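Slide 14.
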Amino acid sequence: MNGAREIAVVGAGPTGLATALMLARQGRRVVVHERFDTPRPVGAGFMLQPTGLHVLDGLGLTDGVEAFGQPIDHIFGREARRGRVVLDVRYSDLKVPRQAIGIHRAAMFHILFEACQAQGVAFETGRDVVAAGAGRLTGRDGGSGPAFDLVIDASGARSQIARSLGLHRHDLAYGALWATVPWPGGTFDSGALEQVYRGAAKMIGVLPNGMRPGEAEPVATFFWSLRTEDYGDWRAQGLRAWKDEVVALWPETAPILDGIADPDQLALARYGHHTLARPFGDRLVAVGDAAHSTSPQLGQGVNMGLLDALALAEALAAHADLSDALADYARTRRWHVRLYQALSLGFTPFYQADGRLLPWVRDHVLGKVARLPFSPRLLAATVSGQLLGPVPSPVQSASNAGPDSHN
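Slide 15: predicted structure.
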């Protein structure tokens, strides 16, 4: 193991917590820095793909995820007016079938945070870190603390720290409104992410999330696609007009909408795209959305971050020199990251864009291609994150090794 024994992780999201846990299990002293006064989850639910679950397998956390989450085998999307099937993907079509899991961020945070605490990871809260140089963190107030051997930036897509690594974020026109709602039951499939589209300008989705910690009833994530510049107009039109529009496109969502009484129940997610050409510098490395972000069309965000965490932990364990370790991390992740960044950037306009041509191509051309004999396995491999996906060595080699296991 190299001499990076004092580690600062910036950001207590899934990627930051998983990274902290792996490195603490290697015998390093890890301090997670979080801008909130108390570490807490931000956002609604998401899908843990087989790639992300593989990482959690090695951490011994999959049982906890399965206890809270909801198995997902099907991603299904249809056009609103004619009911034409636009997207139909089943995880059972994978060469080695494995279901995804829909899980709420509160449950994911609970699992990883408890594991970090049990491993002795320290937390410093209430500090908004905006820069890192020579191993020192600089807060928004201009103050800096002691030097660390390595700073890991897991602060997300709007990272201030990653600017020193060449981060230039390109904001996308479309974002989405997200809300956590009680699981509606009825005609909704508890084992599927269901979506309804009108062209590419309107998209509605319902994702089962299982249960949140301390609650007995299941929840779901509801989302509505929206141009971010139209958010003010959306609030101004009032909930009643918006609900009427949603129900006209997807009548079965009426019970979900009945539970939304305040526009603040829906959070606006603004999407952007960037990929750091070199996600590391002097005693600094970026992981997760700080290193690469895009729209969530392929559902890879958290899963890519977990793969980053694994690759970084393994590289630090394998190389005596820190610079060699960080370069190895970047090489390990390079092609998988770039492939999925390109796929997401290419697919997004077919589901979130203005105009009629792209949704027509999606519905009349891509829909037919998806029904060809070779397509089901290819589509399942794509959404599961396994196209050119790394096949990591057992996580235990990175996460459970003692401080003197590698020289």
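Speaker note: The chain is about 35% helix and 25% strand.
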